[in-house]
Write a structure and sequence with these properties.
3-stranded mixed β-sheet, 2 helices, alpha+beta, 33% helix
Amino acid sequence: GDEVFACVVLREAIKDDTQRQTLADDIMRHTLARLAYYKAPGYIAFVANLPVTATQKVQRNSLKDLAVSLLDHPQTLDLRALKKRTH
């Protein structure tokens, strides 16, 4: 099945892996408190930018390719273990 993959663009650079993990955990807690568990991201990758068109709209068709290329990237965080059905 498909899994939600979040590409996050930050205003400030992340300094280390601990900060990256803490931020990803905060994002996960926030989404799990507001969304059904299956809508929360199973993977989070912090990226410099998203693919955009000439009019600065996100190229949605390119996002899937980006997610596939980031899936095995060492800085992509696998958070699927935190997703649990609560009801």
